[in-house]
Amino acid sequence: MDLKYLDEAGFCLWSPVSHSDSPIGEQKRLEQTPTRHGRRISMLGLWQPGEGFEYALAQGGFKSKSYLEVMDWVAQKASQTLAQTGRLTVIVQDNGSLHKSRLVQQQWSRWQEQG
Hints:
By secondary structure, this protein is of the alpha+beta class. The chain has one domain: 2-Layer Sandwich (Nucleotidyltransferase, domain 5). It is 28% helix and 26% strand. The chain has three helices and four strands; from the N terminus they run E-E-E-H-E-H-H. A hairpin with a 3-residue loop joins strand 2 and strand 3. It is elongated, with a radius of gyration of 18 Å.
């Protein structure tokens, strides 16, 4: 079995004030310049311990359509692995709303058939 862990992380030019540190006794202050909507970069990563790390990038964030595209790519690779080695690929992910949306759930059986 090939075990892979999936998660999403987002990156932007500025850290939110709620996630910043400041010396004791000093007020938090971050000067931020206006940015256009959607400047955030999101990464959907698949880590396989001892083997490697694969990822996909999206500007703004992953939605059901882009998530499905990544998972279709993962399922295609899993199908090749199953055919070549007989090993199933198992993806471990959290309960993020994107991971269990109705549209995504409709694809689960198709992905399982691919290995």
